[in-house]
Amino acid sequence: MTAHNLFNYNSSEEHVNKSMISNTTTCLRTIELFAGVGGFRIGLERASSRDKQFDIVWSNQWEPSTKKQHASEVYTARFGFENHSNKDIAIEVEKNNIPEHDVLVGGFPCQDYSVASSLKNAHGIVGKKGVLWWEIHKIVTRKSPKYLILENVDRLLKSPASQRGRDFAIILSSLNALGYAVEWRVLDASEYGMPQRRKRVFILAYKKGTKPYNTLKKSKPMNVFNKDGLLTKTFPIHTIEEENIISNKLSDNLVDITNNFNKETPKKNAFWESGYIIDGIYYTSRVIANYNGEKQTLGDILIDEKDVPKEFYIDNKELEKWQYQKGAKSFERTNKTTGHVYTYSEGKMSFPDGLDKASRTIITGEGGASASRFKHVVHVNGKYRRLTPVELERLNMFPDNHTAGVIDTKRAFLMGNALVIGIVERIGKKLLENI
Questions:
Q1: How many CB atoms neighbour CB 272 within 10 A?
Q2: What is the mean pLDDT of residues 135-148?
Q3: Assign residue 90 a region: left if phi > 0, alpha if psi is -120 to 50, beta otherwise?
Q4: What is the pLDDT of residue 116?
Q5: Which of 3, 20, 21, 110 is labelled catalytic?
Q6: Average pLDDT over the chain, rounded to whole?
Q7: Residue-number span of the structural domain to which 151 is assigned
Q8: pLDDT surpassing 60 at residue 121
Q9: Which segment, 28-32, 61-65, 258-262, is predicted with the most confidence on average?
């Protein structure tokens, strides 16, 4: 049976129809890396219109250390097998064979991005083996797309702990050397009306000569932060004062950054949650969201109780286990390396989860019936229950039953690894408007 036979999927989602693309259509050829179940793709297709479109010309999804490729199966069931690669991008994908493209998107893993050494050849660097940022770098070096839209966990701006910000500095410097200006912003989806408190850093890169690049080039830092930057246009903020903007020159020597970045003040932040770099100079500042629109809550996305399978409800006997997991507690632990014994404490968590505000962040361990401190529990009509796969999909703004066809625990895992599609959709719309 093919993946198409395994899935029964009903959705009103419309994907880019190539027959709709005319000679007057602005069409951005796009590749999706680390595609998961297609969150970037759905967001960009929702952002597309008849005259301005993102066209996914190639995608790659590979889950290491597992035989069953659930995410890739979901992806191909939804979007088809054409131009999709389910191979290890670091080993099996020949970069020169990837189609030419205007936009590269992807949520890449947060790893140690340090540079092992410097080379004398044209490409100049050797990153650590298996670190997937350097696979993106290889593609960008060969294909030179006009735009990059990347996503990562917000701790990227502070890693590693011994040289806070070093890893992000390597990314910024390597893109700067390839001729890109870069904007970044830590975005909590709930602060802009979306139903989940999910905080991620979004990184937008613009090739020299593009309109967004030229905007950053000619604008003063205060104007970039407050009105001209594409991320500010998309996600408004309260006004930043000039004295709150930090500026610094970033070395173009990646080995030097690896060895020396922020060594003197390793616990001090080099990068705040918003910023940009152009011509080797970066500017960064703290920001506060400025949003007054409608806000979705956890209660808004719940399905009808008559449609909730009985296994998601928690009986009175199991409820005690959940209450214990959610409650405050402390106990002794022993460091396996040093043998040091210490007291580990946990504070009390809200139980059940409030329905009148955005949900907490979905984690990969959200599935399964066992009691857990971090899984969501709602109280509806006098009954306690876990969230269903469809509700987890809605919290990430996916179509209902997008992940149908794999077991419920895996569906939860896939959503724990996904992004909030609404963020990508808004970025995509604003990029199309601004080119």
A1: 18
A2: 97
A3: alpha
A4: 59
A5: 110
A6: 92
A7: 3-293+423-433
A8: no
A9: 28-32
Least confidently predicted of 15-29, 30-44, 189-203, 284-298? 15-29
Checking if the pLDDT of 122 tops 50, the result is: no
Residues 94 and 233 grouped into a single domain: yes
Give mean pLDDT, residues 111-137.
66
The full 3-state SS of the chain, as one line of letters, equals: CCHHHHCCCCCCCCCCCHHHCCCCCEEEEEEEECCCCCHHHHHHHHHCCCCEEEEEEEEECCCCCCCCCHHHHHHHHHHCCCCEECCCCCCCCCHHHCCCCCEEEEECCCCCCCEEEECCCCCCEEECCCCCHHHHHHHHHHHCCCEEEEEEEHHHHHCCHHHCCHHHHHHHHHHHHCCEEEEEEEEEHHHHCCCECCEEEEEEEEECCCHHHHHHHHCCHHHHHHHHCHHHHHCCECCCCHHHCEEEECCCCHHHHHHHCCCCCCCCCCCCCEEEEECCEEEEECCCECCCCCCCCCHHHCCCHHHCCHHHECCHHHHHHHHHHHCCEEEEEECCCCCCEEEEEECCCCCCCCCCCCECCCCCCCCCCCCCCCCCEEEECCEEEECCHHHHHHHCCCCCCCCECECHHHHHHHHHCCCCHHHHHHHHHHHHHCC
**Alpha carbons 72 and 7: distance in angstroms, whole number:** 13
Of 274, 184, 283, the residue nearest 238 (C-alpha): 274
- What pTM value is reported for the model? 0.91
Q: Do 97 and 139 sit in the same domain of this protein?
A: yes
Do the Cβ atoms of 312 and 375 come closer than 8 Å? no
- Tens digit of pLDDT for each residue in 321-372? 999 999 998 888 888 888 888 888 889 999 999 999 999 999 999 999 999 9
Given a cut of 60, is residue 5 above it in pLDDT?
Answer: no
pLDDT at 153 over 90: yes
Same structural domain, 48 and 105: yes
Residue 222, φ and ψ in degrees, nearest 5: -60, -40
Domain count, the chain: 2
State yes or no: is 110 an active-site residue.
yes
Structure confidence at residue 252 (pLDDT): 94
Q: Are residues 313 and 234 in the same domain?
A: no
